[in-house]
Design brief:
6-stranded parallel β-sheet, Prephenate dehydrogenase, 282 residues, alpha/beta, Rossmann fold, PDH_C, prephenate dehydrogenase (NADP+) activity, 10 helices, NAD+ binding, NAD(P)-bd_dom_sf, 6-phosphogluconate dehydrogenase C-terminal fold, 9 strands, 2 domains, 12% strand, single chain
């Protein structure tokens, strides 16, 4: 379990990695960090969010009890293959990646037997990127998902759950890799597709002086990191395509209801959506 002597390394000081570092350091833990951008390391050092940092994964930086991989999905497996020989025996490794089936089995298949990778996903973020925007307060209203496999020990799973408690997440749950990716296709990826598509429906920039809160709220997540999200979408293509098809079917249903002026069906859809949405108002 986590104790005050537990040492952490954050690999990738972006928004989430920086927020992990800041939150852990504020709780009195020893935190090191690795990032290809030296400016990010210097920023975190100057802010007092990390004790040590560098652009190269040295043995000193990786002499820790837990590593958090805050990397893009396509980089995670490559990083583990390249640097796992430098990691201290017994280290528990976790991640922040938004898809799981495309990375977890491969990492666990190549991992040294004295290391353990327990995948997890903090359901938190902002429409900005970079360590300068990091803030552990984004975790307090957020959910934290652990996605263990049969290659994980109970001890390591509980360690990662303890990590979520240290960072003050609102709720921690377990899902299988497939359950996670299916869930994320609907709750996160489809919503981003809708927001992006709405902004791309036509050149609506001339409407900026007239818009209300409904449009701003609905399109907030259209401000999107094109490099990260294209990777996430491709790695979860099967589930996301299904969700898009289901959404298009529902849009067609609503269009037909409007075209035929079926007021009763339209009201039924409004009542159903209102009832379902109220479950999220907690």
């Amino acid at each position: 379990m986590i104790s005050k002597d537990t040492r952490f390394c954050i690999v990738g000081l972006g928004l989430l990695g920086g927020s992990y570092a800041q939150g852990l350091k504020a709780n009195g833990f020893y935190v090191t960090a690795i990032d290809i951008n030296e400016e990010s390391i210097d920023y975190a050092l100057n802010q007092g969010w990390i004790d040590e940092g560098g652009v190269t994964p040295t043995n000193q930086l990786l002499d820790v009890d837990c590593i958090v991989l805050g990397l893009y999905p396509n980089v995670v497996v490559k990083w583990m293959k390249q640097y796992q020989d430098k990691i201290k025996s017994g280290c528990i490794i976790t991640d922040v990646t938004g898809v799981k089936r495309g990375i977890v089995p491969e990492i666990q298949s190549i991992l040294r037997p004295d290391l353990e990778f327990v995948a997890s996903h903090p359901m938190a973020g902002r429409e900005v990127s970079g360590v300068q925007y990091s803030d552990p307060n984004i975790f307090k209203p957020a959910n934290f998902i652990v996605t263990p496999t049969d290659k994980n020990t109970d001890t390591a799973i509980e360690f990662v759950k303890d990590l979520s408690k240290e960072l003050s997440f609102n709720r921690t749950t377990e899902l299988s890799l497939s359950q996670h990716d299916e869930m994320i296709a609907f709750l996160s990826q489809l919503t981003h597709v809708i927001a992006v598509s709405l902004m791309n429906t036509n050149d609506n920039t001339h409407l900026v002086d007239y818009t209300g809160d409904s449009f701003r709220d609905l399109t907030r997540i259209a401000k999107i990191n094109e490099n990260l999200w294209s990777e996430l979408f491709i790695m979860n293509k099967d589930y996301l395509l299904k969700e898009i098809d289901d959404f298009l079917d529902e849009m067609k249903r609503f269009r037909d209801t409007l075209e035929t002026e079926d007021i009763e069906e339209m009201k039924r859809l409004f009542i159903q959506s209102t009832t379902r949405r109220k479950l999220f108002d907690k």
